[in-house]
Specification:
15 helices, single chain, six-stranded mixed beta sheet, five-stranded mixed beta sheet, globular, D-Maltodextrin-Binding Protein, domain 2, alpha/beta, 2 domains
């Protein structure tokens, strides 16, 4: 696991050069670019330890030390999680990783992927679907920053402290943490009480009874120790989740455009569909491991029956209808966007299944 870095690969190269090269080599040092990366989770969380750190180190290595990344996890550059997008837009941080739902209304097109009726449970599939829609639908949400990646996690399970949730009725009246405004609608459709808060506040809220449960993936439940606090963990039939959360890895636009051409091209080469797939694979791989850990704790892992899953999904139709109405009022062709998102998810679901079948036949 990685810790926040003050010394980077590029810094190490420059230090060695300072010991052996005459002052005339100073222009080489002037070419160094150090990019700050700010986010709200710990350095040990999946987003940094398994995803962003390896991504950054590949870029550092391929730049021969001319570009470096300095990580500031847990909001150590200041501010609150909902301020991360503004920090990237305004140049407070060079790069941020944040939840789109922390700034409601700013990303009205990308919000479609938060809907429980769109995401089925695979981060790989939904990430590739997002890539398909980026140019025609989603790019206009990110005109004030340079988006490096828009992606999701594997989807939200419901983690409850004392009440096992197997049916819609079991959820009635529970105080549940929401990740986004569409999450609020989902909880309302379950006749439960939505409570909005950034995810770092969830463990204390569960421990104190402020929350009865929270919608988060297992990979987040691990570093936050939610699997030690909550006793019951619910997902829908077939591994389907209660929607997902959409994340943004974005760079300040001026900072991106100020990079030397070759470094900007190098950064571009490490974004796109390959990075989207890699992110999905990383998040999807964590879920079963943490679920096993919860089971080893003696926790109750609940899979809702097929019949009851159909009841949940029928209730969530109200969320979809509400989103279409709201987005249409904003001037978005919401019905077309929703249909395109569902079609992209279905297309990649089929493609991934065919690829898995072909690999199994070899």
């Amino acid at each position: 696991m990685f810790q926040p870095r003050k010394a980077t690969l590029a810094a190490a190269v420059l230090t060695a050069a300072a010991l052996t090269v005459a002052p005339a080599a100073a222009p080489v040092a002037a070419q160094e670019v150090t990019l700050t990366v700010h986010h709200f989770l710990s350095a040990k969380a999946t987003n940094q330890a398994r995803f962003l750190e390896p991504w950054a180190e590949r870029i550092e290595a391929e730049s021969d030390g001319r570009i470096a990344f300095e990580f500031f996890p847990s909001m150590t550059m200041g501010g609150a999680p909902p301020e991360l997008y503004q920090q990237a837009r305004d140049g407070v941080a060079d790069i941020i990783w944040t939840v789109l739902g922390y700034t409601p209304g700013v990303f009205p097109h990308a919000e479609v992927f938060d809907l429980p009726s769109v995401h089925g449970g695979s981060a790989v599939i939904t990430n590739l679907a997002i890539q398909d829609l980026m140019d025609d639908y989603l790019a206009q949400d990110f005109e004030d920053v340079h988006p490096l990646l828009v992606h999701v996690h594997s989807g939200q399970a419901l983690h409850t402290t004392t009440v096992p949730v197997r049916t819609l009725e079991d959820a009635q009246g529970l105080k549940l943490r929401v990740p986004s405004r569409t999450g609020t609608w989902m909880i309302e459709a379950m006749d439960a009480e939505p409570v909005g808060m950034p995810v770092p506040e969830v463990p204390q809220a569960l421990s104190r009874g402020v929350l009865d449960g929270a919608f988060i993936p297992f990979e987040v439940a691990l570093p936050l120790r939610v699997i030690d606090i909550a006793q019951h963990h619910t997902e829908l039939a077939g591994g389907r989740r209660f929607g997902t959360t959409t994340f943004l890895l974005a760079m300040n636009k001026d900072r991106y455009e100020s990079l030397p051409d070759d470094l900007r091209a190098l950064l571009d080469a490490h974004t796109g569909p390959e990075l989207a797939r890699e992110a999905g694979e990383i998040w999807d791989a964590v879920e079963p491991r943490v679920m096993d850990m919860a089971a080893e704790n003696g926790n109750d892992l609940i899979t809702v029956s097929e019949a009851e899953t159909a009841r949940f999904l029928a209730a969530f139709q109200a969320v979809e209808d509400r989103w279409v109405e709201d987005a249409t009022a904003r001037g978005i062709d919401a019905a077309a966007l929703l249909a395109a998102a569902k079609a992209a998810v279905a297309r990649h679901t089929e493609a991934e299944a065919e690829a898995a079948g072909a690999a199994g036949a070899e």
